[in-house]
Amino acid sequence: xxxxxxxxxxxxxxxxxxxxxxxxxxxxxxxxxxxxxxxxxxxxxxxxxxxxxxxxxxxxxxxxxxxxxxxxxxxxxxxxxxxxxxxxxxxxxxxxxxxxxxxxxxxxxxxxxxxxxxxxxxxxxxxxxxxxxxxxxxxxxxxxxxxxxxxxxxxxxxxxxxxxxxxxxxxxxxxxxxxxxxxxxxxxxxxxxxxxxxxxxxxxxxxxxxxxxxxxxxxxxxxxxxxxxxxxxxxxxxxxxxxxxxxxxxxxxxxxxxxxxxxxxxxxxxxxxxxxxxxxxxxxxxxxxxxxxxxxxxxxxxxxxxxxxxxxxxxxxxxxxxxxxxxxxxxxxxxxxxxxxxxxxxxxxxxxxxxxxxxxxxxxxxxxxxxxxxxxxxxxxxxxxxxxxxxxxxxxxxxxxxxxxxxxxxxxxxxxxxxxxxxxxxxxxxxxxxxxxxxxxxxxxxxxxxxxxxxxxxxxxxxxxxxxxxxxxxxxxxxxxx
Length: 482
Ligand code: ADP
Fold this sequence. Notes:
Layout: H1 4-60, H2 64-77, E1 81-86, E2 91-94, H3 112-120, E3 122-128, E4 135-142, E5 156-164, H4 166-216, H5 231-286, H6 296-324, E6 333-336, H7 337-354, E7 358-362, E8 369-372, H8 374-391, E9 397-405, E10 408-415, H9 437-442, H10 449-459, E11 465-469, E12 473-481
Parallel strand pairs: 7-9
Antiparallel strand pairs: 1-2, 1-5, 3-4, 4-5, 6-8, 9-10, 10-12, 11-12
């Protein structure tokens, strides 16, 4: 697999190599041309100098030895060959050769620099010298022979100078070497930088890949380091947030699962008791008790009571599971609360009277409108009143109160019953929690009544408060918007 890192690095290397090489080649050619041009113009100057020197010698009618000595001095000082050529192409002086050897030289009339000088006054050419087997650059200048009539070289027509190119080549080679060195250094820097940069980019991506792999494998504990504030840092941050969210979601799911299985355990336990009793009574009857006039009716009644308990339990269970699954939709409306509470108390009057208990209503004289789901509230307040009747002793008093303050209406239901011990208070709203199990069973409780109350009141955006004192009584209250 080609990694992002190698892709970035290779692209960088490829482009920088191309750019740097191109620059290097251009630079070295430019430098070479510059030096060559400078050398040419120096050599032209030298021909000027020699030209003047010979003109002066002609004017002064200088002796040949003297002129030749001057020429050899210039030649030696400037590491330069000086050649004087006449109009026929014959070499009449050559600084690197003894005069006696001059006749052995070829005719110079067709040498490129001489040909060019004839046409353009000045000519140049670089080539391998046949006489000394070195690369030389030649510059020739056309001169008027008439000016030198009185000199030692009366037929002089061309002054030519030449230097070895090797020195220039050496200098250029040195510069080229430096350029190559610089190119390599730049390349090395670019390679190192691109390696570091690409690693910086690819490392977090590799880590992100690893973490996603971990998540796939169910491990959500690893955190990505957030090293920068850029896009990659943001992605790392988001992935950390995502794993946090997933983790808490999974924890939530696990908790729900625990609650669900606990609930299921409780439910089967709750169902088993009445079914077991029901079966027991029916079996006893089948075993012969059905013919025993003294007990048969009592046993049938007991079986009936357990069946009723099962019925109530199932209704409550269905109710609470509908509420908890969110299946039960609330329908909120404004309704009048005073008449509503009066009616509710009346509905329970018969049950209260059976225990010689009485209701007291503390309701305002005027109509009070509250906001809520009337039917659900009837169920919730009904459960609280039902408990008050069930758990309070005969002849107890149950008070239903409605108080208004600002934009809230507070409903409370109090009894002067046995009260609830403080240690139980925080738990009575839990499903199946009962302070006194046998007592609850005896009065037909399912342990779900207050759990349903809590759900309904919380769905109204409110909370149920409970105050209780042993042997003094219990008060449940909550507020509604009005
Ligand atoms: P249950 O079906 O057992 O009544 P609830 O959820 O309605 O279940 O109530 C939980 C427990 O709270 C009851 O078992 C009872 O012990 C206690 N309780 C509720 N209301 C009162 C009350 N008015 N006085 C005393 N105890 C109460």
